Every structure is written in structure tokens, then in C-alpha cells.
């Protein structure tokens, strides 16, 4: 059986004992949602001419900016909690994760209050096409939401 996707960076977030204790059913739902969102993000980004804007609402530990093969000129905005992002960023750098050279990556702290203003200050333009995605995992079920404007 072939995996739906391979995330070479996810293990850097897990303590060794946790890897054996993951709920298989919950992980299957999460993997299906992740694969769907990954494929949709890349499909839409590849159809947009010129500069691409991707806004990811994350928990701060999203590996998509590092593991997906983003088209040239993609601007990726990660909206997430500052402290979690800083810890995750350090761990990802420690395992060699890198944003593609032809792309730009910006973190927007969710605590900043005016997220729209913060996005604009980093170069986001509401006059250009953008892709917005959010994936949330709860204890009971996986909820996936995909927005595109």
C-alpha cells in the first residue's frame, strides 16, 4: 500500500513515545483531509498566472510551506500563534526544512489583532487572486475547510 503523502518533517514535532500511541483512525481522517487540501492548493496555485498568494491559517506547525512543490512566485502567509510558530520554525530548521527559493514566506502572528493589516504590510494584495486554507484537528473529529477567492 502506498502512502497518500509523505511529510518528511512531521516527526520533528513528536516525542519518540508518541509515535506508537497515535490513534490510527484519527490519523487516517487527518491524512485524507491533508492530501485533499494539499492537492487543491497546488492545483489552484498552478492555474493562477503571475504572483500567487496563499494564506494558511495554521496551528503554527504546518509543514506545507516546506514540503509542497509550490509554483514559482508563490507568496505563502502563515497565520498562527507566535510562540508555537517560533518553536516549530526552530525544529523545522533543525531538520533541514527550507522554503523553495522562488517563493516568499511570511509569518503573521494571530495575536497581532488586525490580521488584514498585517497581511498587507507583508505584501498581500486584495486585488490579486489568493487561496485561503485552514485545517483544524479536534479530539473528536477532523474538520477541514477550504476557501478560495
UniProtKB/TrEMBL annotation:
Keywords assigned by UniProt, alphabetized: Methyltransferase, Transferase
InterPro entries: Ppm1/Ppm2/Tcmp (IPR007213), SAM-dependent_MTases_sf (IPR029063)
Any matching Pfam family: LCM
Gene3D superfamilies: Vaccinia Virus protein VP39
Name under which the protein is recorded: Uncharacterized protein LOC104737534
Organism: Camelina sativa (False flax)
Gene giving rise to this polypeptide: LOC104737534
Amino acid at each position: 500500500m502506498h502512502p497518500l503523502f509523505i511529510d518528511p518533517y512531521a516527526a520533528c514535532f513528536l516525542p519518540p513515545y508518541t509515535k506508537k500511541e497515535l490513534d490510527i483512525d484519527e490519523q487516517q481522517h487527518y491524512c485524507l483531509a491533508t492530501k485533499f487540501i494539499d492537492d487543491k492548493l497546488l492545483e489552484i496555485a498552478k492555474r493562477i498566472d503571475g504572483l500567487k498568494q496563499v494564506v494558511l491559517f495554521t496551528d503554527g506547525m504546518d509543514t506545507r510551506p516546506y514540503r509542497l512543490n509550490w509554483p514559482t512566485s508563490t507568496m505563502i502567509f502563515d497565520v498562527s500563534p507566535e510562540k508555537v510558530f517560533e518553536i516549530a520554525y526552530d525544529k523545522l530548521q533543525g531538520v533541514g526544512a527550507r522554503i523553495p527559493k522562488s517563493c516568499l514566506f511570511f509569518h503573521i502572528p494571530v495575536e497581532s489583532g488586525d490580521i488584514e493589516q498585517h497581511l498587507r504590510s507583508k505584501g498581500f494584495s486584495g486585488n490579486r487572486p489568493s487561496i485561503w486554507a485552514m485545517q483544524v484537528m479536534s479530539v473528536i473529529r477532523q474538520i477541514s475547510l477550504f476557501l478560495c477567492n
